[in-house]
Write a structure and sequence with these properties.
The structure holds 2 protein chains of 2 kinds. By secondary structure, chain A is an alpha+beta fold. Chain A has 7 helices and 5 strands. In chain A, a hairpin with a 2-residue loop joins β3 and β4. In chain A, α4 packs across α6. In chain B, α1 packs across α2. In chain B, a hairpin with a 3-residue loop joins β1 and β2. A two-stranded antiparallel ribbon of chain B has the order 1-2. Chain B has one domain. Chain B is 67% helix and 3% strand. By secondary structure, chain B is mainly alpha-helical. Classes of the chains: A alpha+beta, B mainly alpha. At the A-B interface, α5, α6, β3, β5 and α7 of A face α2, α3, α10 and α11 of B.
């Protein structure tokens, strides 16, 4: 029932976006998507319990359309990106996207039931590259900052990096990727990422679908 | 002071000498000239974690319900706030510093010796400060990255901060020794338990866990030093040399 309403709402929203040329402001976009995802998780027992496949599907559907994975991969790969062929770039971005989604999926269950503090963004109309800050308030510990680096594109504002507690999803890979490229080349990096993704898909650590409810697997 | 600490110092020193003697060639990152030594310490800590710390943390999580674990976490967090406040004052952040100390007063009294974080309910936000950050604010650079046995990732500056953190820590100064050891052990397991999910994520995400953890740690420290608002680095639009 809820999903049906959500679908209808989304369809309406899509129409609205098409009807008016103005793009949703980046901070507004982050707020809409995060609240929607948190809401869906809160109302779904399987998602709350950390059902991996379902969480990944949720991310794919709701969050990923707002990410620029080619841009993220370019930043993570660094100088070697320019030497990559278009085909290699495409494969790299696809594998990197997979890796981020798989790892990110398990962290979504961590952030459920939390209080989001959406910080208003002070931006000039001409800005095309901004950082949107969301703070996650937790009892008994320092609030955790989530920062979305976003750029303006004709298809709306797109995320090209995310920092959680100051740690960048993209920058953290730079040295690792550079090391692999130095030793094994771009194709080596593609192969390494593919192997990593395959092993993650085969043996999902942490919360997995169908785990006994005792929670001992964590 | 204690024999254990002397052993630790000796081990660290021995490791540094070892690193400079033999494994220095593995270093490729200018921030990490002691990579050989650090990787050895990382493997040592990791072995200890897998064999002992992680199993105990999992058991603690399974046995103690979250409300109880929350009380343990809050108790130690309340002690930390004394030093969060001191460091904020030393860094010239007077409002934050007084907030931290007000948190201690509120949590120690109304929160019953700190086991309830009522101050956060009152929107008195918790901060994260230490002497390493204070030194950084005073202008001391990071120094080389350093993985300490038992303590994990640090930089040279933050290790110096750690010595002060540790010397002044009421938990470390608690006597009798049996009580002190129990407190240190409990706090350590409590913190490690909170980090179980995150460390699982790190294991999943990384290709080379040593490099991943190092780069994440250095970013995290930078963020903490600037209280979550480090200057935004310019985006390398077209990645190039």
């Amino acid at each position: 029932m809820y999903r049906w309403i959500a679908c209808a709402a989304l369809a309406l929203a899509a129409c609205a976006v098409q009807a008016q040329p103005a793009l949703t402001p980046p901070d507004e976009l982050v707020k809409i998507v995060m609240l929607e995802v948190a809401d869906i998780i809160a109302k779904d027992k399987q998602l709350k319990d950390g059902d991996r496949a379902k969480t990944i599907a949720l991310i794919e559907e709701k969050a990923l359309p707002h990410f620029n994975f080619l841009g993220m991969t370019a930043l993570a790969v660094g100088p070697a990106w320019q030497k990559a062929t278009p085909e290699q770039k495409k494969r790299l971005a696809a594998e990197f996207r997979d890796l981020l989604v798989r790892t990110y999926a398990s962290s979504l269950t961590v952030f459920r039931e939390q209080n989001f503090d959406f910080r208003p963004l002070r931006m000039k109309p001409a800005d095309t590259d901004v950082t949107v800050l969301v703070r996650v308030l937790q009892q008994g510990s320092q609030p955790v900052n989530i920062e979305y680096d976003m750029e303006k594109t004709p298809r709306g504002w797109k995320v090209y990096d995310v920092r959680v507690a100051g740690i960048s999803l993209v920058v953290t890979y730079r040295t690792e990727f550079a090391n692999v490229v130095r030793d094994k080349g771009i194709d080596g990096l593609v192969a390494t990422l593919a192997a990593k993704n395959k092993s993650l898909a085969a043996a999902p650590a942490g919360a997995s679908a169908g785990a006994p409810p005792a929670g001992t697997t964590k | 002071m204690s024999g254990w600490r002397a052993t630790l110092r000796a081990a660290a020193l021995a490791g540094v000498l070892l690193a400079s003697a033999g494994c220095a060639t593995t270093a490729t990152d200018p921030r990490d000239p002691l990579e050989g030594f650090n990787r050895a310490m990382f493997a040592f800590n990791d072995g200890l974690d897998e064999a002992f710390v992680k199993p105990v943390s999992r058991a603690y999580k399974a046995v103690a319900p979250e409300p109880l674990r929350g009380m343990v976490r809050n108790f130690f967090s309340n002690i930390d706030d004394v030093f969060n406040g001191a460091n904020n004052l030393l860094q010239g952040k007077f409002l934050d510093g007084w907030t931290d100390w007000f948190r201690v007063i509120v949590n120690t009294t109304f929160g019953v010796l700190g086991i309830n974080d009522v101050a956060s309910d009152m929107r008195l936000e918790k901060h994260n400060e230490d002497f390493g950050q204070t030194f950084a604010v005073w202008g001391v650079g990071d120094g080389p990255y350093l993985v300490l046995p038992f303590f994990g990732p640090y930089t040279l500056r933050d290790s110096a901060g750690l010595v002060l953190d540790w010397e002044l820590d009421p938990v470390v100064r608690a006597r009798p020794i049996a009580l002190r050891n129990t407190l240190i052990g409990t706090r350590f397991i409590s913190k490690r338990t909170d980090f179980l999910d995150a460390s699982a994520l790190f294991e999943q995400a990384s290709l080379d866990r040593y490099v991943f953890l190092r780069d994440a740690y250095l970013q995290r420290r930078r963020s903490l030093i600037y209280d979550g608002n480090p200057p935004r680095p310019p985006r390398p639009q077209e990645p190039q040399e």
